[in-house]
Amino acid sequence: MKLNDAIELGKTDRWQEAHVRVSPDNRNQWFVLLWDTQYKSFVLSDNEDRPIATEEINELAELVRSIGLKDFTVFL
Question: How much is the pTM?
Fold first, then answer.
């Protein structure tokens, strides 16, 4: 799910929850997995459709807030 699209859908309360998980490609990076109100899952990506992965969970926390969610679950 592209970031801009996720932000727009968040304005309509489309997102049910978010998980931050360790990237399978790089165990030092994290990514966001979103679930909509119909429990369909999406990987949060940038606007070029590349998955957003970072070593800083705080950066992902800001992204989760930008799409309209106030909390998320972290899986180690």
Answer: 0.91
